[in-house]
Specification:
This protein is an alpha/beta fold. The protein is built from 14 helices and 14 strands. The longest helix is centred in the C-terminal third of the chain and has 19 residues. It starts with a strand and ends with a helix. 51% of the residues are buried.
């Protein structure tokens, strides 16, 4: 009994009813990418039913989808990765994590400087690559850490590895995590290079809050099931609920790791996040790279499907949108796709619109456990 979740980070399928409140009216990540990138081709996702969920140019609805399909809505306020991942695993938030559209407040900066006993620079909501170019020279000269935020609930600290050793950067992040208990994530952002040619490194580290009550991950672990992370997901759950983790460098590495792990883990939950859609392409409004990333995933998908065993379930979904065709470079408040397949899963079932937590409830029922939120749709899709 095994479930594999492949989460395509940021691959939303249309604005939620309250998207206008978030400045995201008109966002529809996959559909809008397809409109702008005329060469998009996703034959394997098309067969599973991706084009049956929402209108996607070049990806027509399948007359006989090979999977169950639908879309999920987020009930929690917000549109960040932590909220989306938590809700998929059964945790619904009543209030959003705080954000800082006008920059990190001065009182927070003062508290942080006092705690680490050094000055900092920055503080504004801005792209990480941009602020590193703007303040990297000053950082190298003074040794002052660069801090910044975004539309998400994040407190990010960027330091050059030659100026600030990784251990020291991580310690500062741990200090910030203890100071700011309501922020979604504190993120370490190391970089290297020279002025005019700085590059962020793969040693990014996220310090997330832990969920307020047990998730499906916690419950499965407590019941003796392997719970394996591939990618950055363990960081989003405060490193709670997993029995093993495989951190990956990019989508390609993640997909290779999935196949390797499937050869080793024959029961439990394997939860994978393919981050490049969000981190590299969505936040930088790189439509072409986003489209090519979707096609790379589509080309790889059959190699994953071939490894499924009789009692396996494969789930394709996302955590939020990040429409690269809009002026915004931030996440977008969108529905996310849900595609479910496997030998025991019925074909062509339209799940219509469900809540994110319904996925967690359905998987919980499959494993014979229960979570606090969500309504299971397992009986609608499974066959003996």
């Amino acid at each position: 009994m095994r479930v594999l979740i492949l989460l395509l980070d940021g691959c939303g399928v249309g604005e939620l009813p309250d998207a206008v409140k978030y400045g995201d009216a008109g966002s529809s990540t996959i559909s809008n990418v397809a409109k702008e990138y005329k060469a998009l081709s996703l034959p394997n996702l098309q067969k599973l039913g991706l084009g049956n969920i929402v209108d996607i140019l070049h990806v027509p609805p399948s007359k006989s989808p090979h999977a169950c399909y639908g879309k999920l809505r987020e009930l929690s306020p917000g549109k960040d990765s932590v909220t989306g991942h938590w809700e998929l695993m059964g945790v619904i938030l009543n209030k959003p994590f705080p954000t800082f559209p006008d920059g990190i407040p001065l009182d927070m900066i003062n508290r942080f400087e006092k705690a680490i006993n050094r000055k900092v620079i920055g503080g504004q909501p801005i792209s990480g690559t941009v602020i590193i170019e703007q303040l990297g020279k000053e950082h190298i000269k003074t040794g002052y850490p660069i801090i910044y935020t975004s539309a998400d609930s994040v407190f990010q600290i960027a330091c050059h590895k030659d100026i600030m050793p990784l251990d020291e950067l991580y310690r500062m992040c741990e200090t910030a995590r203890k100071l700011f208990l309501d922020i979604g994530r504190v993120i370490a952002r190391p970089f290297t290079g020279k002025v005019g040619d700085f590059k962020r490194t793969p040693e990014r580290k996220d310090y997330s809050l832990t969920p307020p009550y047990p998730t499906l991950l916690d419950i499965l672990k407590d019941n003796g099931f392997p719970v394996v992370n591939i990618g950055k997901i363990d960081n989003l759950f405060g490193n709670r609920g997993f029995t093993d983790s495989f951190h990956t460098k990019n989508n390609s590495h993640g997909m290779k790791t999935v196949l390797n792990v499937m050869d080793k883990i024959d029961r439990g939950l394997i939860f994978t996040n393919l981050i490049d859609f969000d981190m590299l392409w969505g936040h930088r409004n790189n439509v072409e790279a986003f489209a090519k990333g979707l096609m790379d995933f589509d080309e790889w998908l059959p190699s994953c499907l071939e490894k499924l065993k009789r009692n396996d379930i494969l789930v394709l979904t996302a955590d939020h949108g990040i429409d690269p065709t809009t002026p915004s470079t931030d996440h977008s408040r969108e529905y996310v796709p849900i595609i479910i397949t496997g030998e025991r899963i019925k074909k062509g079932i339209d799940l219509n619109t469900r809540n994110m937590s319904d996925l967690g409830a359905s998987l919980a029922e499959y494993f014979g456990v229960a979570i606090e939120n969500g309504i299971s749709f397992l009986k609608e899709i499974i066959q003996d």
